[in-house]
Amino acid sequence: MVVFPNSKINLGLNIISRRTDGYHNISSVMVPIGWCDVLELVPSKSTATTLTVSGRKVDCLPEKNLVMKAFRAVNERTELPPTDIYLRKIIPDGAGLGGGSADAAFTVKALNSLYSLGMNDDEMAEICSTIGADCPFFIYNRPMLASDTGTTLSPICIPLPQSIKITVIKPDVSISTAEAYSGVSPHIPQYSITDILSTPIKNWRGKLVNDFESQMAGSHPRIASLLNMLYEHGAIYAAMSGSGSAVFGLFDDVNMSDLVTHLDDTDAYYAGTLNF
Q1: 46-65 in b/e burial notation, b at 16+ Cβ within 10 A?
Q2: How far apart are CA 25 and CA 109, in angstroms?
Q3: Cβ-based neighbour number of residue 120 at 10 Å
Q4: Which of the residues 37, 89, 109, 134 is marked catalytic?
Q5: 121 noted as active-site residue
Q6: What is the spatial distance between Cα 253 and Cα 273, in angstroms, rounded to a whole number?
Q7: CA 226, 232, 233, 238: dihedral to nearest 10 degrees?
Q8: Is the pLDDT assigned to residue 60 strictly greater than 90?
Q9: Catalytic option among 8, 89, 109, 170
Q10: How many CB atoms lie within 10 A of CB 162?
């Protein structure tokens, strides 16, 4: 079975408060995009489950990969036969695009289908919540308002034209979650994300804020320069996704051939259409 775990962007990300357990309450809208990895699961002829990773380098031992964590989480619920898993990484790591979380969630969904486990979306999302904060989102894989630690999800409609295009750029900068949270001060935002997203996209700039962005753009000037470049090339709205370092721009139209000439050889990028 072959599936294509996709990435996501965050439209706004507010750090609301610090919890007594050390985590943070957030508010963010996560939206799936078409930048995908490739994941194949095959019943194994051996007695052990294996993971083979190719494509982009992943700085993680296979047994610690979220894909294997997902396999073990499902196996705790229902004993699974040995499975050979092949993951081709295309989505950059350390980007705020949720690539590892998507791989884990799609592993759960693929196991459910491959072995006819009969789990519904809510059951799979519950398993995914034990793997990582972003993982449950990729079970539903539609625009969602994420609250609490990011695992409380509510469907949301975003009134954007079907013609809106997205460009995502991931510079040669990786940001850990610890680094991102070290520079933020929790607060109640002036404007709620849901209220902002109900207005025309031309009104989002300066109101729809990622609380990680200012600090990360200050620490990593390449992020700031890419955001400026996206606006200079006609983005209606541009922002950093998640805890970074990927940035994205939303466009009525975009000349990718011109935009690419302004990128470094080490920049990874994706261009596509948003369909809400």
Answers
A1: eeebebebeeeebeeeeeeb
A2: 27
A3: 10
A4: 134
A5: no
A6: 10
A7: 50
A8: no
A9: 8
A10: 8
- Look-up of token digits 């625009």: 143
User: By C-alpha distance, which of 179, 178, 185, 162 is closest to 273?
Assistant: 162
How far lies 79's CA from each of 71, 73, 76, 82, 83, in Å?
10, 10, 7, 10, 12
pLDDT digit string (tens) for 94-150? 899 999 999 999 999 999 999 999 999 999 999 999 999 899 999 999 999 999 988
Nearest Cα to 172, choosing from 36, 261, 265? 265
Model confidence at 58, pLDDT cuts 50, 70, 90, reads: confident
Please answer whether residues 237 and 201 qualify as being in contact, where contact means their C-beta atoms are separated by less than 8 angstroms.
yes
267 noted as active-site residue:
no
Which domains are assigned to the chain? 2-155 (3.30.230.10), 165-273 (3.30.70.890)
